[in-house]
Amino acid sequence: MSKSALITGILGQDGPYLAKLLLSKKYKVYGMIRRYSNPNFGNLDYLGITDKIDYIEGDMSDESSLINVIKVVRPDEVYNLAAQSFVGDSWRMAKLTTEVNALGVLFLLNAIKLFSPMTRFYQASTSEMYGIGNSNGYQDEETNFHPRSPYGIAKVYAHMMTINFRESYGLFTCSGILFNHESPIRGIQFVTRKITDGVARIKFGLADKLYLGNLDAKRDWGFAGDYVEVMYRMLQEKKPNDFVVGTGENHSVKEFVKLAFEYGGISDWQKYVVSDARFKRPAEVHELKAKPDKAKKLLNWKQKVSFKELVKMMVEADLKRVKTKSDLADSG
Ligand code: NAP
Ligand code: GDD
């Protein structure tokens, strides 16, 4: 019999890639969406799977809705990807970020414990939990957490609660501590997509500047399509466990900018990029770099797309997207 999976955050970046993977493995996929008068299926459309998913309404900040979702679906696996995931907004919306990213996870775990205790649970933990945590130039499963944002703090709560439900009630609950992963359907606020979209707009004359914050921050950037594979593998293991997932190399925002402009056929990026204090953070995470040895060894996981291939893929997708839009505008 085929397995079933519930994905929260189905309309975001990772949800569609994960849904596509699970559909290819013959899962019945349920996608939890918030109540909306007009939900945005753009990312699922991009991967061509909008009609292959069963949708159910639920909101991470509403416990009764999550109880209902779990009672109705009783899936074999839950992948909790829903979050207020933009770090920058988490200072401006600290309460909402805490309700959705921290308390919402407690509600979901409780619902599973009460109404579907055999369900396996994946929590989308994050390298942002490390913040300026102790490391020897990298972060692994042993590194201390010292989050620097309300987002990171809420995610530490959710991470520890996920472990606590495993230890207290014997539930199959896992966390993937994923480092930054990107794609052509990355949200437009995140720096990579903001850059590749900016390059395309400049290229086609729709913008003449790109306003950015801290160009010196370094991140360990991988491709989202590679990372959802590890979420799936974690829930197929004999025992629940937590894993760090990243490429093991990092690059500065400046390096990303330079490469993206090069792929866009623009050599003098300095002419277009403007430093703007609005995009700097009250407390920055200066540098993140994964040591994903455990995932490589126990899950036999390795990323396929390199940093350069990722930047190229994103620039090409945005050039195509912006060109299509400007062609349509020209033709009236
Ligand atoms: P994303 O594109 O921002 O998607 C998040 C999804 O969560 C959106 O579809 C959003 O729904 C949904 N959501 C937000 N608030 C909700 C609520 N109150 N109730 C129900 N759904 C809600 O994020 P992503 O990049 O796919 O990341 C997936 C998960 O991995 C997130 O938890 C993120 O924090 C975590 N993570 C991401 C990365 C990364 O680099 N991408 C790294 C580590 C961890 P709407 O579409 O309705 O807004
Ligand atoms: N968004 C943004 N916009 N970031 C900028 C900008 C800008 O104009 N200029 C510089 N940056 C810097 C940020 O200060 C940060 O150091 C870095 O670029 C990356 O920012 P984001 O792309 O917004 O990602 P993030 O690292 O803060 O968070 C993402 O990765 C986390 C995993 O480490 C998100 O996907 C989180 O949800 C995820 O947990």
The CATH homologous superfamily of the domain at 4-182 and 221-245 corresponds to NAD(P)-binding Rossmann-like Domain
Class by helix and strand content?
alpha/beta
The CATH class of the domain at 4-182 and 221-245 is identified as: Alpha Beta
Specify the oligomeric state: single chain
Shape: globular
Side-by-side strand order of the widest sheet: 3-2-1-4-5-6-11
Family: Belongs to the NAD(P)-dependent epimerase/dehydratase family. GDP-mannose 4,6-dehydratase subfamily.
Cofactor: NADP(+)
Domain NAD(P)-binding: 6-314
Catalytic activity: GDP-alpha-D-mannose = GDP-4-dehydro-alpha-D-rhamnose + H2O
What does this structure look like?
Catalyzes the conversion of GDP-D-mannose to GDP-4-dehydro-6-deoxy-D-mannose. This is GDP-mannose 4,6-dehydratase. Residues 6-314 form the NAD(P)-binding domain. Belongs to the NAD(P)-dependent epimerase/dehydratase family. GDP-mannose 4,6-dehydratase subfamily. GO terms for molecular function: GDP-mannose 4,6-dehydratase activity; NADP+ binding. With 332 residues, the protein is α/β, with parallel strands linked by helices. The chain has a domain at 4-182 and 221-245: Rossmann fold, CATH 3.40.50. Helix content is 42%, strand content 15%. The chain is built from eleven helices and 13 strands. It has a seven-stranded parallel β-sheet, with helices on both faces. The chain has a two-stranded parallel ribbon with strand order 7-10. It has a two-stranded parallel ribbon with strand order 8-13. Helix 1 (14-24) crosses helix 8, helix 3 packs parallel to helix 5 and helix 5 (94-115) packs parallel to helix 6. The protein is globular and about 60 Å long. The mean pLDDT is 96. Bound molecules: NADP nicotinamide-adenine-dinucleotide phosphate and guanosine-5'-diphosphate-alpha-D-mannose. NADP nicotinamide-adenine-dinucleotide phosphate is lined by residues 8-9, 11-15, 34, 59-61, 81-85, 100, 124, 126, 178, 180-181, 187.
